[in-house]
Design brief:
The structure holds two protein chains of two kinds. Chain A has helices at 2-25, 50-65, 78-91, 102-110, 118-123, 135-140, 163-168, 184-194, 214-225, 242-256, 269-274, 288-292, 328-343, 345-350, 358-362, 364-367, 370-376, 391-406, 412-428; strands at residues 34-35, 38-45, 69-75, 97-101, 142-143, 146-147, 150-151, 153-162, 280-284, 299-302, 313-316, 318-321, 354-355, 382-383. By secondary structure, chain A is of the alpha+beta class. In chain A, helix 2 links the parallel strand 2 and strand 3. In chain A, helix 9 packs across helix 10 (242-256) and helix 18 packs antiparallel against helix 19 (412-428). The radius of gyration of chain A is 25 Å and the shape is globular. Chain B has a domain at 88-283: MetI-like (MetI-like fold), CATH 1.10.3720. Chain B contains 15 helices and no strands. In chain B, helix 3 crosses helix 15 (299-330), helix 5 (88-120) runs parallel beside helix 9 and helix 5 packs antiparallel against helix 12. The chains are: A alpha+beta, B mainly alpha. Chains A and B meet through helix 1, helix 3 and helix 18 of A and helix 3 and helix 14 of B.
Chain lengths: 430, 331
């Protein structure tokens, strides 16, 4: 009797397990394309800040104007966004539209997880083309000659500066307004004037400049001198190239030689800028809303000064993409949403972005946004993270090396050589 | 009459004899062989599905070049293990983890022991104190880390504010101290791991405290009485009675603390948002495994690191089992 019971138990368990496994294998996404006659579009992004509210409004507006489509927008913090997206693309359940950041785009395109969109571009009554977009993000929407994305914006870093501290230090133009630096010499002179011990206790408590993001700041300096994380062919590390080292030394000098910036440890650099304890910082355009919310702060934006022989500024782009296995009907509806968001990207610009659409960027409404319009002057020379499938993996070696150099844990030469060795090792892996 | 029978069987010194008497049919029924298995079945199934199968699958993964998004996962043999062993960051992670164990385990056990010794003497509100000290153990590490992130904050953190106040106070009293420099608890590479250890000790001390307290309460009061009559002071009583009799408890606590500490992950993960900390000072083995497997999606490589960690922990467990059995033999 026990034997029979045992066998029954085993059979039942195996059946349950098998059923569970099989049902788990079936993709769960795109399961309910229609709800009450409406096409349902799932849209994922990582806009959990104020930008998410703006995007939410744009989506709601789209739904109003397109009553046959229902959009379920899911906000996932960037920290876990790609984990979720990756698993959904690999094992099913992917959204119909999702945001892909420029730094990650090549990786996902290289695994053929994104849908080629040239058909969608051409199917529109007024098709969009290269002439409608800023050239840098337009180029970014291609991987190996195939277009996989609709570029939404460009978000370069720019120079935020405290206008009150500038005026107090006498750094003003002929109208008496704060005058941001445009060259390295001006930057250094201003930063020195703005670095002060205001309480007289022998400790600097107001800094001319703070490094808020080592990655974007380093890439900006490096590109201006002709350096990068990898060689142009994307096959080797290039952080120890003379150009990159020159840029790294310049950054270190700001801290240790000119003493106009604090060591990037134990300082909440962004907080320092917000508190008026730092006069300048190079941060993303997307931070503008958080400064605007702080009414007591007098600040303005300007293009990044030219530190090296050429212009260059780190930037990113949000790309709108679709999964490779989306059904034609879903893809069509999803494209309508993508196109709508692109057409209405002025709203998006107000949230702290430069629209990728030339017409929107040049519109008087956009040019009236003080910080955005200033940062927008840089769009022609924006540089991204390396455009190779392993770009994201490079950062695990690049960022600690930059940090080690800036904290003087290693000499810039040693830190960058270590990074290059590790990057080479990684790029050699199959 | 039944009472008599019961009392006879209960008073029997050899339970084996009783069962033989109660079950005259010497050969067990054939079906009985399965009943044990049946009772074990629910646990065995859970173990199989959630532990053994994933563990073995992990071994399989570690032998492949397995990117989550890739359609094909080519077999690469031991290449992932080779990569890990020639990866200096892997060794750095191992070194950091060992450093954490050295920092957190002895000090943590000392704190637990001191708490237990203190509590053993408390008569009033003993339960309140026990609960208070034990409470951090039941909080998730994510919550603990977020809490401590603020305590550790260089500019506005409570730790630095208290230290600043203490130093300033002492200076006012005329002590020749330098003005307080805020300690960069989390952002200085030399401070990162000690800070994590400090936080972990606060988090986990209550757990071992309970074990130590049980150990202390198990010591017969006669020993202390005798020692007191012989004129032993508190320190002598501790050193001659409590400490030697607590050795089994201490060994047990140490073994499990070491095993737990080697798997440290949540602390670094939450404090540094999944990154490795300043100068990779907070990069532990499990964090490195996580980064490779779930941030870089190199699942095969991550699995190989997991198996190497498994080897390290297995080795340590072996050593500790040997220590245990060595003690038992001596006893």
């Amino acid at each position: 009797m026990y034997q029979r019971l045992f066998r029954c138990c085993i059979n039942a368990t195996v059946t349950i397990l098998l059923a569970a496994t099989l049902s788990g294998c079936r993709p769960a996404g795109n399961a309910t394309p229609e709800a009450g006659g409406k096409t349902v579009i799932n849209f994922w992004n990582g806009f959990t800040g104020p930008d998410g509210k703006t995007m939410g409004k744009m989506v709601a507006q789209f739904e109003q104007e397109n009553p046959d489509v229902q959009v379920n927008m899911q906000l996932i913090p960037w920290g876990t966004y790609y984990d979720k997206l990756t698993l959904s693309l690999a094992y099913g359940g992917a959204p119909d539209v999702f945001i892909m950041q420029a730094a990650r785009f090549s990786e996902y395109a290289s695994f053929h997880t994104l849908k080629p969109l040239s058909g969608q571009y051409q199917s529109d009554k007024t098709p969009l083309g290269a002439q409608d977009f800023a050239p840098v993000p337009w180029r970014e929407s291609y991987y190996q000659g195939v277009q996989y994305a609709l570029p939404l914006d460009i978000h370069p870093i720019g120079l935020y500066y405290n206008t009150k501290l500038f005026r107090d230090a006498g750094i003003v133009d002929e109208h008496g307004d704060a005058k941001p630096p445009a060259t390295l010499d001006e930057f250094l002179a201003d930063a020195k004037k703005l670095t002060k011990d205001t309480t007289g206790n022998g400790r600097t408590d107001q800094w001319g400049f703070v490094i808020t993001n080592e990655h974007s700041n380093w890439l900006t300096f490096a590109h201006q001198f002709g350096g990068d994380i990898v060689t142009p062919d994307g096959k080797h590390g290039a952080m120890s190239s003379p150009e990159a080292l020159q840029a790294t030394h310049l950054m270190c000098d700001l801290i240790y030689k000119d003493k106009v910036a604090p060591k990037p440890e134990g300082v909440d650099a962004w907080l320092a800028l917000r508190q008026g304890k730092a006069a300048m910082a190079m941060e993303g355009i997307y931070m503008v809303q958080s400064l605007e919310e702080q009414k007591s702060l007098q600040f303005a934006g300007a293009p990044i000064p030219q530190f090296g022989p050429k212009q260059g500024v780190w930037g990113g782009t949000h790309l709108l993409c679709q999964p490779a296995d989306i059904s034609p009907a879903q893809s069509k509806a999803a494209w309508r949403l993508m196109r709508y968001i692109s057409d209405h990207s002025l709203e998006w610009g107000k949230a702290g972005q430069i629209p990728a659409r030339v017409a929107v960027e040049r519109s008087t409404a956009f040019q009236a946004l003080p910080v955005q319009a200033q940062f927008g002057k840089q769009v022609d020379y924006v540089v991204y993270d390396p455009q190779i499938p392993r770009a994201n993996a490079l950062n695990q070696f690049a960022d600690p090396a930059i940090e080690a150099a800036l904290l003087q844990l290693q000499t810039p030469e040693d830190a960058m050589r270590d990074a290059d060795r590790r990057i080479d090792q990684l790029l050699k892996r199959p | 009459m039944s009472i008599t029978i019961k009392s006879t069987s209960l008073s029997s010194a050899k339970p084996a004899a009783v069962s033989r008497a109660a079950a005259p049919a010497a050969a067990p029924r054939r079906d009985d062989r399965w009943s044990g298995w049946l009772f074990a079945l629910p646990h065995f199934l859970l173990f199989l599905v959630f532990l053994l199968a994933p563990t073995l699958f992990g071994l399989y993964l570690s032998l492949h070049n397995w990117h989550v998004l890739a359609k094909h996962h080519p077999f690469v043999g031991l290449a992932n293990y080779q990569s890990a062993l020639s990866d200096d960051i892997f060794w750095l992670a191992l070194r950091n983890t060992a450093y954490f164990v050295i920092l957190a385990v002895p000090a943590g056990n000392l704190v637990s022991l001191l708490l237990a010794l203190g509590l053993a003497g408390v008569k009033r509100f003993a339960t309140f104190y026990k609960v208070a000290f034990y409470l951090p153990v039941v909080i998730s590490i994510a919550v603990v880390a977020v809490l401590w992130q603020w305590l550790f904050n260089t500019q506005v953190g409570l730790l630095n504010l208290y230290l600043d106040a203490a130093v300033t106070g002492l200076r006012h009293l005329g002590l020749p101290l330098a003005p307080f420099e805020p300690i960069p608890w989390l952002s200085n590479p030399h401070m990162a791991m000690p800070s994590i250890a400090l936080m972990s000790i606060w988090w986990g001390a209550g757990g071992n405290m309970i074990l130590y307290l049980a150990g202390i309460n198990n010591i017969a009061p006669d020993y202390y009485e005798a020692a007191t009559i012989d004129g032993a002071n508190g320190w002598q009583r501790f050193w001659a009675i409590t400490w030697p009799l607590l050795k089994p408890t201490t060994l047990f606590c140490l073994v499990f603390s070491v095993l737990g500490a080697f798997q440290v992950f949540g602390q670094s993960y939450v404090l540094y948002g999944g990154a490795s900390g300043p100068g990779r000072a907070a990069l532990t083995m499990v964090l490195y495994m996580y980064q490779q497997g779930f941030s870089q999606y190199e699942i095969g490589y991550g699995a190989a690191i997991a198996y190497l960690l498994f080897a390290v922990v297995l080795m340590l467990t072996g050593i500790q089992f040997w220590l245990f059995s060595g003690r038992k033999a001596k006893d």
